[in-house]
Amino acid sequence: MALFGSSGIRGLANKEITPELALSVGLAVGSLHGTAVIARDPRTSGEMTEHALISGLLSAGCSVTRAGMVPTPTLAYAARNFDCGIMITASHNPPEYCGIKLWNRDGMAFDSRQQEEIESIIHNRTWKTAQWQDIGRVYEADVIEDHATMILSKVGRASLKVVIDCGCGAASVITPYVLRRMGCTVITLNSQPDGFFPARNPEPIEKNLELLKKATLSFGADIGIAHDGDADRMMAIDPAGRFIEGDKLLAFFGIRETSYSIVVPVDTSIMVDDVLKNRKIYRTRVGDVYVAEELKKRKAEFGGEPSGSWIFPGISLCPDGILAAAKLVEMVQNEGRLDALVDELPAYPMIRGDVPCSNEKKETAMKKIAISLRKLGEVTDIDGIRLDMENGWILVRPSGTEPKIRITAEARKGVEELFAKVHKLVSGLL
Ligand code: MG
Fold first, then answer.
1. Catalytic residue flag (residue 55)
2. Least trusted range by pLDDT, from 40-49, 125-134, 308-317, 361-370
């Protein structure tokens, strides 16, 4: 089994992500890098994994700076002062998971070439072993103030009432602090770090944010903010207590952060195309790592993913949920009520569905589907098959985790017919 997945090394704590594994990752990373900064989210497995990683790093002769329990973007921003950054997190996964993610100085996660290099050292046990006089040392640093100061230098003052739900994750140590420093009145929910994630599932999707919706409405707040476990994601609630769709946040950031280019995943709403008419829109596979890679390649101004990852490449290529929260608060402060801003955006109906398909049959099925869809119009195959038409688009994509082929359709008009037509076509081919 490959060590790295699309989100770094991730698995069940103490079963798949064991101290032995962490030790070998530390040895491999320490063989290639002279200095590293390391941090963790509040998971129960964090300290165990950190100690094993540090032992490996020191043994290979790498100096380690411990940043403690901080968000992923805080660690990734600190990494600019070291040879690399190491974050122990399983992001929005349930509490029994653990993970290790490696960062370059520019906030870009290790790419596939770097991951293969680490895997090869671990597999062949070709790590360095330092002589006694060269064993690494451990230092401590407060990287929160550094990250907060940078964010505060990018936004103005704000006097809003904000409810923030940190989901008992790493954001607890920074987002409420940054928003208060901006001048906001901050009401916190679930902002005590707790590795059991007792308050809610750490993923910031609408069904997990019912309490935040109620609190935003009943406190009469201007905005509600939610993060995932490691705060590289941020989603928001408007003052009417409505969850704001990720495509709408993407449009808000796109309008304000770009004048010529933006990177978005292939399943982004055409509403974003409509409001960013004069920008070049680069599309990538679904996943924030692909958005970051394309941003770097195209030197684009902003990149985002509707699941809540917002990347400001002038600062870091790591999605930054705290900076995004501060920028959104600033927007509301300067431009008026968030519910009115949401309602000003065009909205087109989107239908999502799926057709059952066993994992073994997915590849053959997708080939047949591609041939059929090509007969209907222009298709792109960045991630699944996307068919674009004058008034909308449809994406057919194999699920990465379930025995299903997913179908998403969006259109300015006639979305039901479009969806029904392609659903029938896909079902007929399976
Ligand atoms: Mg995350």
1. no
2. 361-370
Compute the distance between CA of residue 230 and CA of residue 175 in angstroms, rounded to an integer.
12
Q: Are 222 and 197 in contact (CB under 8 A)?
A: no
pLDDT tens figures, 267-299:
999 999 999 999 999 999 988 999 999 999 999
23-43 CB burial, b ≥16 within 10 A, e <16: bbbbbbbbbbbebbbbbbbbb
Percent of the chain with pLDDT over 90: 92
Q: 204 C-alpha to center of ligand 1: Å? A: 10
| For the chain, domain boundaries | 9-142, 145-343, 350-429
d(CA 75, CA 79): 6
Residue 211: C-alpha distances to residues 20, 44, 243, 391 (Å): 40, 24, 11, 37
Q: What is the mean pLDDT of residues 215-238?
A: 97
Q: Which CATH superfamily is domain 145-343 in?
A: Alpha-D-Glucose-1,6-Bisphosphate, subunit A, domain 3 (3.40.120.10)
Give the Cα separation of 406 and 400 in Å (integer). Answer: 10
Q: How far is the CA of 131 from the centre of ligand 1 (A)?
A: 38
Q: Name which CATH class applies to 350-429.
A: alpha beta
What's the pLDDT score for residue 260?
Answer: 97
Written as six digits, the tokens of 310 are 């917002």
Which strands form 63-69's sheet, in the order they lie side by side?
9-12, 97-103, 84-88, 35-40, 63-69, 138-140
Alpha carbon of 229 to ligand 1 centroid (Å): 6
Tell the CATH topology of 9-142: Alpha-D-Glucose-1,6-Bisphosphate; Chain A, domain 3 (3.40.120)
Main-chain phi, psi angles of 31, to 5 degrees: -75, -25
Domain 9-142 matches domain 145-343 at the CATH topology level: yes
Of 24, 31, 63, 91, the catalytic one is: 91
pTM: 0.94
10-37 pLDDT, tens digit per residue, is 999 999 999 999 999 999 999 999 999 9
